[in-house]
Amino acid sequence: MATKLILLDLDGTLVDTVNDITNALNYALDGRGLRTLSVGEVKYLIGEGINRLIEKVLGEERIHVKDAVVTRFLDHYSKHLADNSTVYPYVRETLEKLTSYRKAVISNKREYLSTELLKKLDILKYFDLIIGSDTTSERKPSPIPVIYALSKFNAEPSEAVMVGDSNYDIEAGRRAGIMTIAVAYGYGERRYLLDADAVVDNFGDLCAFLT
């Protein structure tokens, strides 16, 4: 069947958010006895959502302060969502070309943060639906957010494609039975993207795989 629906990850796929996430994380961790984290370190921790990001940084010995750190992170991050975040090259131009397709964002960032970030960067207008980590009962790599999107658009798995930069995106798409395209410029290491049906080096290249 022809492609009807394009499902897109947010962080590392549409938008480079690592600087603002790193700043919010270091702010939230201040006073917890941990060293300041670099952008390079945080880059490889992004993908499973804010709660998992903070759990990974705190470790078991500090997990008891997780809720307080999450609250502090969200307070700072919500005020500085787009201070340093930028839309990746070729994203705007490509989205302009994809007007004949329905498009949804599926992010492990919370829905209100995802929506607000897209709005601040003036690309919310390109999407018909925003699905965050709290929109459905499970988040990627679960296929549930993908299945939810398919139901919203009355689309068959054969009519959809998932585009993302991490193994969480690829696994979610594959488990839902849809085509997967990995972008190699994001936060996920290329070796973790090999299960995708295709890997592209820039966002514009995905057009070649759409029918």
Compute the CA-based radius of gyration: 17 Å
How many structural units, i.e. domains? 2
For the report, how would you describe the main beta sheet? 6 strands, parallel
Identify the quaternary structure here: single chain
Outline the structure in words.
With 211 residues, the chain is α/β, with parallel strands linked by helices. The protein has two domains: 5-16 and 85-209, Rossmann fold; 18-79, DNA polymerase, domain 1. 36% of the residues lie in helices and 14% in strands. The chain has helices at residues 18-29, 39-43, 50-58, 66-79, 91-97, 111-120, 144-152, 167-175, and strands at residues 5-8, 15-16, 86-87, 102-106, 129-131, 160-164, 179-183, 198-200. It has a six-stranded parallel β-sheet. Strands 2-3 form a two-stranded antiparallel ribbon. Helix 6 links the parallel strand 4 (102-106) and strand 5. Helix 1 (18-29) crosses helix 4 (66-79). The longest helix is centred in the middle third of the chain and has 14 residues, at 66-79. The protein is globular, with a radius of gyration of 17 Å. The model has no long low-confidence stretch (mean pLDDT 96).
Helix and strand layout, with pairings?
Layout: E1 5-8, E2 15-16, H1 18-29, H2 39-43, H3 50-58, H4 66-79, E3 86-87, H5 91-97, E4 102-106, H6 111-120, E5 129-131, H7 144-152, E6 160-164, H8 167-175, E7 179-183, E8 198-200
Parallel strand pairs: 1-4, 1-6, 4-5, 6-7, 7-8
Antiparallel strand pairs: 2-3
Helix pairs in contact: 1-4
